[in-house]
Amino acid sequence: xxxxxxxxxxxxxxxxxxxxxxxxxxxxxxxxxxxxxxxxxxxxxxxxxxxxxxxxxxxxxxxxxxxxxxxxxxxxxxxxxxxxxxxxxxxxxxxxxxxxxxxxxxxxxxxxxxxxxxxxxxxxxxxxxxxxxxxxxxxxxxxxxxxxxxxxxxxxxxxxxxxxxxxxxxxxxxxxxxxxxxxxxxxxxxxxxxxxxxxxxxx
Length: 203
Fold this sequence. Notes:
The protein has 203 residues and is an all-alpha fold. The chain contains 10 helices and no strands.
């Protein structure tokens, strides 16, 4: 830490608190109402901060959307790591931890109930070529890579099959998330987990 940093902790804490409030408010409003339908005024009002605070922390609404997508990704990774730590080093359990992390996300106390994958919901509203869509794509690729890593541990002698099975399971997971979002419950995710477990038993 520099002397300048050490000399001005109160403003840094205030800015940090405002940023967290804005991100939390944006997360609630973007998920409940959609990215396009949510204006800056709605976010600052819910966060309880002045509009200038938003522009002190984010260069634009688009910048806030990017921060939201990054935070959503990290939030899911944290859920996955917690599930994985409970079963490590079992690779079969690692695969199922991915499904469990998605179910954990589905069971958050959302304002208007579960509406599916927040990242995909946001991506559907963004235009082709938008950087936010690339963030969502990287998240989905990382999830598939996690599945592939566990499967390669299960079947180190068949890396190609492990990768193909990871793709299969990622499709199963995304389909279950879409149906669960439409139905507003995690039932489809529970079914998908059971299907995944059965597939793992037959590898």
